[in-house]
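Worked example 2:
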Amino acid sequence: MGQDSFFNQALSEWMKGSGPESDIVISSRIRLARNLQSLPFPVLASDEHSLDTLNRVKVLLDSDDLNEISAFELLLLDEMNDLSKRVLVEKHLISPALANESKNGAVMLSENESISIMVNEEDHLRIQILHPGFQIKEAWDLCNQIDDIFESQLDYAYDEKRGYLTSCPTNVGTGIRASVMMHLPALVLTQQISRILSAIAQVGLVVRGLYGEGSEATGNLFQISNQITLGQSEEDIIDNLYSVARQIVEHERAARDKLLSESKIRALDRVNRSYGILSNAVIIDSKEASQRLSDVRLGVDLGLLKQTNAQALNELMVMTQPGYLQQYAGEALSADERDLRRAELIRSRLAHQ
């Protein structure tokens, strides 16, 4: 696989909607923060130190154990333009911090893009696994396997009392962030979402938007992840998230049943209006596009709309983001130009379903 495929192909494997409960759980993610014992953390590292980290990680590209899992491509951030970096952020393959602030930053990507290993982000290593649907335990099994390979070759910063040492104190201990991305339109429409989110906060979990910390929950997409990394095992953290996410899935299904039994005509009207706007709009901004796509996705999931499918909508969720729109156009675009191109792209994709 060539490097261009990571930028030009809209859908990563995790976006294809083929996992368990994929009508509600868009993706499951595990991310581990790890640092090397003998080098300053990236926030304090010199160019020489960060280059040393990168060179140590490069050696692992030839690891037989790692290549048994997947072939990997190493992408150097210094060799990318800002647009390419933004596309990788929009596909959740790198973080905004790596794209904007890293010294000698890089990312190792597996062929199907389900494995992303960031180098010289906030920590020396951020090992990330993304699976489609509700597969948080499966994602952890794979992440743990990769972590073992890295730990056998690299000397991790580890303390017997505190666990794995990280740049941010909130990651000390296990260094794990486990999360599920959930599409919860029925809980929003039935005005139950505030109660659900409040309950989530009481059990050590946090809710963020599509792009994690600091991002807004647009398009009824909510990222639910653990907040505590110290004092619990990785398995306890994952079991807690799994249990809560399972309950949210059940609540969302009940809310969808309620919409169909009590408000089917209104739901059908909302879905068809959004489909009509997306099919005919001349300009549309990213926020409205996200909300309309959410409505249409709900219509598909409820069997109210047959003209499109979930995978096409997942693709549009990525392709209508600012970075990918400009990559697709092959040029930088102003906000107004993006709104025009976004509407044109959506019209075209829906017309050819």
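Residues 69 and 301 are 33 Å apart (CA to CA). The radius of gyration is 21 Å.
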